[in-house]
Write a structure and sequence with these properties.
Blueprint (H helix, E strand, L loop, with lengths): L11 E7 L5 E7 L6 E7 L6 E3 L5 E2 L3 H11 L7 H18 L3 E3 H15 L1 H11 L5 H25 L2 H14 L2 H5 L1
Parallel strand pairs: 4-6
Antiparallel strand pairs: 1-2, 2-3, 4-5
Helix pairs in contact: 1-2, 1-5, 2-3, 3-4
The structure holds zinc ion.
């Protein structure tokens, strides 16, 4: 390690100490040339690659977001949260094993598609039918949110006053009643 003060190549380690969790090693060093001291930190490189979205933006792999999306795909299916968590953990480990700094977001979608059928066929079809037309996990998650919200809203509507299709017809009937042709008769 180069001395940051005089750029001498060879510095001496005085003391090595591991952080409580063992994630970081702190080394106290001394330069034999200028005698000044400094500290270095050694840590493992970020393991999970950055996700490159379709528009080129980069973002960190968001485990919680993927779990939330899968929970929605598995709604009312015999799949436990533990099973979903395990799928995501395995997927994340797979991403780390690739050893790349960046991977396209489509790769995550493909990995989910590969693993989901073993968990639940219906959840797979739900996921696949929407995901296939997007090819981008972020876009898919947004779309899925809209679908879920729409479903919740139409449920509220039907509780208030019958199915959506019937209600949609009502205004047309009113228009028909005020139609001059019809009034004549
Ligand atoms: Zn020095």
């Amino acid at each position: 390690m180069k001395c940051p003060f005089c750029s001498t190549d060879d510095t001496r380690v005085l003391d090595s100490r591991e952080s409580a969790e063992g994630a970081v090693i702190r080394r106290r060093r001394e330069c034999p040339q200028c005698k000044r001291r400094f500290t270095t930190f050694e840590r493992v490189e970020q393991l999970t690659p950055l996700i490159v979205k379709k528009d080129g933006r980069r973002e960190a792999f968001d485990r919680d977001k993927l779990v939330a999306g899968l929970k929605k795909a598995c709604e009312k299916r015999p799949v436990s949260v533990e099973q979903i968590e395990a799928l995501v953990t395995e997927l994340e480990k797979g991403l780390q094993d690739v050893g790349e700094k960046e991977i396209p977001s489509s790769k995550i979608g493909e990995e989910v598609m590969r693993r989901l059928p073993q968990l639940d066929e219906v959840a797979y079809v739900r996921f696949a039918s929407v995901y296939r037309s997007f090819r981008d996990i972020a876009e898919f998650m947004d779309e899925l949110k809209d679908i879920i919200q729409e479903k919740a809203e139409s449920k509220t509507r039907s509780q208030r006053g019958g199915p959506r299709s019937l209600r949609a017809v009502e205004p047309r009937d009113e228009d028909g009643a005020s139609d001059p042709e019809r009034v004549k008769k």
